[in-house]
Amino acid sequence: MKITVVTSGLRSNYTGGSVHVRNVVKRLVNYFKVEFIPSINFFINNDRVNEEIENIRKLGIEIPDFVISLSEFRNLKPSFLPYSSSVYNKYVEKVEKVDSDFIYDPDYTTPESIFISNKVGIPLGLTLHVPLYSFSQSVFYTYYTLRPFFLQSLDYFLKRSIGLYLLTRIKAYYLRKSRHLSFVAAVSKGTLDSVNIKNSKKYVLYPGNGVDKELLQYRTNKKEDYVVFWTTLIPPKGILNFLYIINLLKKRGISIKAKVAGKFLYDKFKKLFFNYIKDNGLDVEYLGFLDRRELYATVSRAKLLIYPSLADGFSITILESLALGTPVIAYSIPTVYSVFKDVPAVKFVKEGDIRKFADEVESELKTGKLQEAIHDKRVDAFIEFHNWDNVAENIAKIIKDSLNTS
């Protein structure tokens, strides 16, 4: 049995989707013959195309000869939204015979897999890592994430909220255009609930993501006096809300030391970040983009992960924090809540309620209840189950079941 994987590459850039794709696809070779056809984004601003192709082949994955002809798309400008249909029509013209039983897109963000499936008539399965946002979610989630800098960020607010909604509509449009869509899977129930499709099966991946066992080696009972935040440092992930929470606590007379790790994508918000720290006298240390070992050691010694993100379909950040022995307070967005709602070391706050978020952080720093809960057997069982072998096995079963019933 052979499957064709269509995605933007297998190199992990530490985003949840890329980590998932690499860990799953390299394990799918244990279940199928696997070939890889890169989507357009694989080529854009990528000077390591040949190196990456060779690394993928070393995993036992086939790459068709015609793939090299797709490199002509490398000169396209990066785009938050998918390209026009004419671009994908040109792309699929270069895709020659696909000799497989099934096409699988492990991170549906652009529609190349749909165009290929429609052309060759082979059944298709997709996995979603982020929900299809409603208009209200696109607007209000973007608004919430910009506090306390909303007035300084009106241009970003308009572009982000409109762009997020358009992205959702375009992705939903192409889903409806798929003539051989066998299933849509998602890494969480909250993500899958956002999808409205007919005549195709829907699956919640359980587990949706995994964590490497090596993280457990970093666990320690010698916690230090600081809280932590780490992820990609953009407003949707909560970096601005994080600063606001730290400042609210300071105004209440609560001294709190914080450490932040990750990479800023926008110079504007990087400048706002450091100016806010300076202007308000906050004890926030920026660590930069750490290597994995240093990051794990830093998170494991923290008392708490403060994670006011409004842009996650699952949140590997929360999963890794739990594995490292650090409890979490997060917004109760449907995607993340549906994954972690029964984990006693995770406390949820209604999305956007930043003062309640500060209340919960204050309570935890005084009582340590979540830190006690990190040793609960339910947390250990949750972490043990969420491993990449289980994720890949679940996906392989869904693909096999789809082939057997088609």
From TrEMBL:
<dbReference type="Pfam" id="PF00534">
    <property type="entry name" value="Glycos_transf_1"/>
</dbReference>
<dbReference type="InterPro" id="IPR001296">
    <property type="entry name" value="Glyco_trans_1"/>
</dbReference>
<protein>
    <submittedName>
        <fullName>Glycosyltransferase</fullName>
    </submittedName>
</protein>
<dbReference type="GO" id="GO:0016757">
    <property type="term" value="F:glycosyltransferase activity"/>
</dbReference>
<keyword id="KW-0808">Transferase</keyword>
<feature type="domain" description="Glycosyl transferase family 1">
    <location>
        <begin position="218"/>
        <end position="374"/>
    </location>
</feature>
